[in-house]
Amino acid sequence: MLTIADNEFLTQTGAATPMGELFRRFWLPALLASQVQERDGVPVEFQLLGERLVAFRDTAGQVGILEARCPHRHANLKWGRNEECGLRCVYHGWKFTTDGQCVDQPAEPANSRFKDSVRVRSYATHEAGGLIWIYMGPLELQPSFPEFEWTLLPTPHYMATKRFQFCNYLQNLEGEVDTAHVNFLHRNLAEPDDPDIPREILNPQFDGEGLMPPSFLARKKFDIAETEFGMVAMACSEFPDGQLYWRMTPYLVPCFTLIPSQYNDANTWTAVVPVDDHNCVGFTVTWHHQRPLNEHEILTVTSGAGVHALVDPDTFVPLANKGNDYLIDRELQATSSFTGIFGIRGEDLPVQEDQDGTIFQRHEEHLGVTDRAIVALREILMRLARNLQDGISPPQLQSPAAFRSRSVAIVSPREVDPFQLFLDGQPESQREQGIHSAP
Predict the structure, then answer these.
(1) How far apart are CA 99 and CA 67, in angstroms?
(2) Are residues 268 and 406 in contact, defined by beta-carbon separation less than 8 angstroms?
(3) Overall number of domains in the chain
(4) How many Å is the Cα radius of gyration of the chain?
(5) What is the Cα–Cα distance from 43 to 24, expressed in whole angstroms?
(6) Residue 76: which residues within 8 A CB-CB, separation 6 or more?
(7) Are residues 113 and 230 located together in one domain of the fold?
(8) Are 405 and 426 in contact (CB under 8 A)?
């Protein structure tokens, strides 16, 4: 259980807050690339870490992200004209390039050098993996871009989606590493207790009617291993024959996770970035490292049944939301669905957005052994933020290749070391660099 002060430390991410400064040292996803696809197209206003921003793709194809306020009279650059390699404020015509430099002040004298001394705050951008990324920290400390696996693959190998979520970022992030909830929140009452275990694995253990006994897999053992990128949250269930089913969720600092999937299956990455202290934006990417996504994998993205939410294409607000009670079907809940809500992400939203309000009062919670990964995640974030206050940069910034990770879900004999199972499921290039469990 955290103190009130610890909770504020973790959940406040505005400028000059310890956690806000930590987030600003990492490359973060800001937008889908499709949102600024057109050269000289419509500028896009958005908000991250409490800052109002505007993005645009200029005539040359370069994406710029600027503070939304024009430095002249603070008009919103969202209304600006994106033209001839710059964004022109409609109030007085001042024009800015993607790096924030003012290049035209048409109302000033023709020989004026005033524009040379004027800039709008700009941020470094990087386009990769269907996303526009932003770095909001000191330019002289800008790290290498993390080598997330799908960002190195051809476009047909991955699909990326975006959603808004109306709660503090930590409520979503904690849910991503919370393996214990899978057996309940995402359970189909007509299916095995653990929806992540394929039927072909469980078939030998089914009862006479093809269903698992309700108590089977309801209890797991939980462990964690810290690594160069953050940690791996590991949960295992024991089969009647003595084998273990391992579900391993990598957490990559500060706000990325990988949802467990089996060796050689498509993998799924999630990110949750604070919009402000009460709202966040989630990005989800599904990819396959060897081939283009197949029809079934594409359907898991587009149907809304999995971890990709169905959203309004203009606002990215989930179609099932608090305003319509997440379209809960009580009859379905009574017969076949534990929640009566459609989709894995759809089931996550109500318990996170309605978790004691938009900022969860962690000083009043009661944690159990199933919450080891949540406790560890909080400790990692607080340690990194406090170290940064003392001038110690996050060590994860020095290991961009360590972010090229995959999750793991596998059945194995009891005697096999679980961290070795995790390593065996990683890309060969990552295994070669010697990623290890930190002491």
Answers:
(1) 11
(2) no
(3) 2
(4) 23
(5) 23
(6) 45, 52, 54, 68, 69, 70
(7) no
(8) yes
Separation between Cα atoms, residue 72 and residue 90, nearest integer Å: 12
For residues 296 and 159, the answer to whether their CB atoms sit within 8 Å is no
- Residue where one domain finishes, among candidates 111, 141, 171: 141
CB 287 within 8 A of CB 293: yes
Give me 101's structure tokens: 């430099």
Tokens standing for 313?
A: 């294409």
Class of residue 145 by CB neighbours under 10 A (exposed 0-12, middle 13-18, buried 19+): middle
Separation CA 276–CA 48 (nearest Å): 7
d(CA 79, CA 378): 40
Are 80 and 212 within one domain? no
pLDDT at 38: 97
**Domain for residue 172, yes or no?**
yes
Q: Say which residue the tokens 């604070």 belong to.
A: 274
Same domain, 323 and 428: yes
φ/ψ (deg, to 5) at 149: -60, -45
Nearest to 77 by CA among 107, 50, 97, 49: 97
Domain extent for 50: 27-141
Instruction: Determine phi and psi for 63, rounding to 5 degrees.
Output: -90, 130
Share of the chain above pLDDT 70, in %: 91
Do 67 and 189 share a domain, yes or no?
no
Note the pLDDT of residue 433. Answer: 53
Q: Are 114 and 210 in the same domain?
A: no
Domain membership flag for residue 5: no
Model confidence pLDDT, tens digit, residues 329-379: 999 999 988 999 999 999 999 999 999 889 999 999 999 999 999 999 999
The H or E element containing residue 236 is strand 230-238
**Residues near 385 by Cβ (< 8 Å), separated by ≥ 6?**
9, 18, 19, 21, 22
Q: Quick: pLDDT tens for 366-415.
A: 999 999 999 999 999 999 999 999 999 999 999 999 999 999 999 999 99
- Record the pTM: 0.92
- Per-residue pLDDT band for 11 (boundaries 50, 70, 90) equals very high
In this predicted model, what pLDDT tens digit does every residue of 145-187 receive, in sequence order?
Answer: 999 999 999 999 999 999 999 999 999 999 999 988 888 888 8
